[in-house]
Each structure stands twice: as C-alpha cells, then as structure tokens.
Design brief:
The chain has helices spanning 3-34, 41-59, 61-82, 92-114, 140-161, 164-174, 176-181, 186-197, 520-538, 553-568, and strands at 130-133, 136-139, 208-218, 221-230, 240-247, 251-258, 264-270, 277-285, 288-296, 308-311, 323-332, 335-336, 341-347, 352-359, 365-371, 377-385, 388-396, 400-401, 403-407, 413-419, 427-435, 447-449, 456-460, 465-471, 481-489, 500-508. Helix 1 (3-34) runs parallel beside helix 5 (140-161), helix 3 packs antiparallel against helix 8 and helix 6 (164-174) crosses helix 8 (186-197). The chain is of the alpha+beta class. Strands 18-26-25-21-23 form a five-stranded mixed β-sheet, with no helix packed on it. It has a four-stranded antiparallel β-sheet with strand order 7-4-3-22, with no helix packed on it. The chain has a four-stranded antiparallel β-sheet with strand order 6-5-8-9, with no helix packed on it. The protein folds into four domains: 3-197, no CATH class; 208-296, Immunoglobulin-like, CATH 2.60.40.10; 318-396, Immunoglobulin-like; 400-508, Interleukin-17 receptor A/B, fibronectin-III-like domain 2 (Immunoglobulin-like, Sandwich).
Length: 573
Amino acid sequence: MSGSALLLQFLNGLAGANSLFLVAAGLSLIFGVSRIVNFAHGSLYMLGMYVAVWLAPATGFWAAVLLAALIVAATGALVEIGVLRRLYQAPELLQLLATFALVLIVRDFALWAWGPQDMLGPRAPGFGDAVFIAGAAFPRYDLLLIALGPLVFVLLHALLTRTRWGTLVRAATEDREMAAALGVNQRWLFTGIFGLGAGVYVPVPSTLLVWYRTMSSGPSNATLFVYVASTAGVPLGNASVSIRTSSFVFGHRILNGTTDSSGLARFELPNNESVSQDFVGNASYGSLSQSFQGFFEPPAAPALQAPQAVWLNRDDVFAPGETANLRFRLEQDGSGIPHQDLFVYAHTGTDLVLAQPVSTNATGEFAVRFIAPVEPVWLDIAGFIGGAWRSFSQGFIARSHLIATVSSADGRHLSILGRFPSSGGPWIARLGLRSVQGPNEVAGPLTSAGNFGVAALVAGSAGERFTFDVQLPSFLPSGVPVVVSIEAESLRWETGSNGLYMFSQTVIAGTPILRPTNVDPWILLSCLTFLAAIHVVVRPRRRPPTAQDRTSHADIAERQSARARADTGPPRK
C-alpha cells in the first residue's frame, strides 16, 4: 500500500474516531456522575438529528444545530427530573429497564412526528465539497470532524477543571456522600450533567445520485461511466468526480474527471484484461458532495467470441429446502448452441449436491435443478464444445423470501415498503438498483452506487417495518427494465437458515406501479357475511299455529273467571 493510501486511511479512521468521541463524551459524563448507564443516550442523539433536520429549512444549518442541541439538552434535563432522579438508589436492572423504555418512547415519537421515511438534510455550508490530499479527494466535512473532536475535548476539559461547577462535578464523581455532606445540591448537579451529556451531533446525509456502468473497448481496455444527478433525478453538468481503483494486479489508480451536460464523466481504464476490482469515489457539485463505491466488472470484450454459459434467472430467489431451478443458455456470438451435451457438477464445501449430464434444447437453453442447501453451492459446467473442452463456473447462495412491495405514481419515484423477518436479528437491509442489460448491448448495466456500495441501507429489529424512498434519474431512459433488489442479512439466525433473505422485482422506468390492495379487510368482511347468512338459513323456525292452538277471547275470559271463583271460595278442610 502506498504512502498516500495509508494517509487517507488514517484520516478516515480519525474522522470516524472523532464521531464516536462526540457521542461517547456525553455518555461518559452521565455515567461518571450519576452512575447510571443511560440506555437511551443514542435515542436522544437521534432526536437531536431529527430536530436539526426539521429546523434547518427555516433557520439555516448552524442555527438548527444550535437549537437542536438546546432542545435535546432540555429534554435530557426533563428526563433526569421526571425519571432518573427516582432511580439513583434502585438496582441496575431497574435503571436499564427504565432507560430502555425511554428508547421505545423516543423511537415511537420520532415515527409519529416525522414518519418512517428517510429525511435528507442540508450539507454544512462550506463543507459540502472535497479537497484533494495526496492526489485523492477527501470530504471537507470529515476534516471538520477531525478538528471538532479535539476542540470539544479541550472545552470539556476546561469546563471540568477550570470552573467551580466542574469542581463540584468531579467531587460528586469521586465521593457522592461527602459532596452531599458539604452542601452540594446533587439533584441540580445531576440534572445539569444529564442535559450537557444529551448534546447533539448531526450526521449529514447524502444529497446526490450516482450511477455507473462499464464497457469494454478492446481486449485490454475498458471505460467506466459515472453519472451524477440531483436527488430529484436531474443530471448535473460540470460536477467534479474523483475515483480510486484498487486491484492486486495493478495496484491503485486515482482518476479525476468532470461531468458533461448529461451528467456523465468517462474514465479510461487501460490494461484491465477483464480484471474485477473495487473502486471508491466522490462526486461534488457546488456545496453538495456524495461519496460512493462500487465493483468494477467489465463485460466481455466484443473481440472475444468464445462460448459462454449465461445465467438467465439470476435474480430469482430460492430458499433453503426449496427446489432451485437455475436456467442457463449456452451461446456463442449471441446465438444459442443447440443439442450440446454437458456435464454439471454441483457441490458445497463438504457435500456433493448434484452430478449429472444435461443437454441444451433447440435454443441452447438448459436447466439445473437441485434441493437448495443452506451452504453456498459451486457449479461447474463442462463439455466438448466446438472441438475444444470448455468449462464454466457459477456460484449459488440460497436466500429466503423477503416480504416487500414497490409502488410508484409516475414510474420514477419509487416507494418501497418491507418488513424484516420475524426471528433472529438485528437485521440490515441493502437496496440495490440496476438496469437489465440487453442481449446485444455492449455496455454493462447501469448500477446505483452509494456510501456503502448500494443505493440505500437500513437496519432494524425482527418483524419491524422498513421503507426506502428512491428516485430514478432521468438519464435512465423510460422503458428500461430496472431490477429492484433488497438483501436482508443477520449474523444471528435459526437452525435451517443462513440468515439471508432476498426480495427482487423488475420495474419499468417511467411506468406507474400501483400499490397492492390490502385484501385482508375484505376477506374478514366476506367471512362475517358468510357466517351471518349461515345463521339465517339454519336457525330453527317457529311452526305456524294450527286451529287447535288458536284460543278465542271468550275461552280465555271463562278460564280467568273460574280461577277467580276458586280463589274466593270457602277454605278446604
């Protein structure tokens, strides 16, 4: 690794460490004085972020940050007065339960006030672009974090060591009983500490859309296309783009470019020889900046016309225990190779899954079927094709079915609703967006890139709902199929599962997608109507009265008169 790469990694780690310090400083203050592990500390920071983003359009970025800090500090003081002040002498388990209840309250309040959709706030004025350090782009906002951490440390150190209030705080930390005996009002001291510790740090969200695609321009060259658009999907011209590629073969390369009027920046990558490699980059437009990363896998060069096995249903999902039906097409020069004998060998790291001969049909297609195991499966397909022995390899991983729906009123703004699996967790869901490559298309598919190599990322607990709200850029032509995929993963799962869940749906750019109708109320109403009809049909009916059952008014009057005479007669002996 070169010296510039080491410097950038060091700066990235330093920026991340300062972010953690800003959060941990308040938690350490609260625990040091009150001896309470505030389980809701992160929720208060989340509340501060929401308040700051909510206030920013009306007050500006820096005023919103200041007001959010004051509001959250006041909220922390109220929490200490109303809840924690009664728990200082309580067992630790009760303190944890109380602060965990605060987590649920703050979370539900945020959902009620701002909804489950992602909120995009403004960039910090003057810190939205990138600077070049050792020839590579580095976010200016990360430099602000690197400077802000030591500044907060110096201010807190001065507050705790150079002021009377800081002296009282340190005295209460060392010996709470002695401080109380000397007349220190510990109640208000703890309230002030809790309010100070519930400060705010606002992480700035991404504000640009970045897509990329690759195209081979020869047997040893390739072109990487990077598209930049606003969050409304409008291409941005004259945007600065910097990428850094890395591979074991060719080391590191740093390339810089500028987008044209269509939002496109081109990067020529020589000597690729179809070598797959990762890349990271940064796109900036005025005060807006977006970091991204992706995986560079150039398609086969046009000059290479060797036979290949194309996986036709790569996006289909097969859960462990289901019958996986993998369809392939053996083709050369874009045409299928019919009636070709092949042999398929599928195995996991320890077990044999399948070993059998197959033959292609008239269009060159063939299928491989097996019971999907929990472990990854490697498929080796070989045959004597065109006078030479050819072999192809593919990897398969079983994924359970993830529940999600996609809807869009205009075919551009996608609203995606889903739910995490009901067991295991915590879960992470990654949203991927890519176009479908045509059969004769030379360039690779358009793929969305973000901070973590995917379009968006969410996390949650088992059974919890999640949402994605994404915009398809206008440089993606209408009528182009786009694969919307969501991969949910957990490091804790039940027996018989590998902790991987997948959702995949192909949408057409520019074509509206109706939200699926919830038929559950109609089913319930139909069932109730059916039960009511059965009750009406089968209930016992009264027999109509006959002539013998009918009694005249005269008969009734005569009976009543006889009963009266019997009651007034002489008593019986």
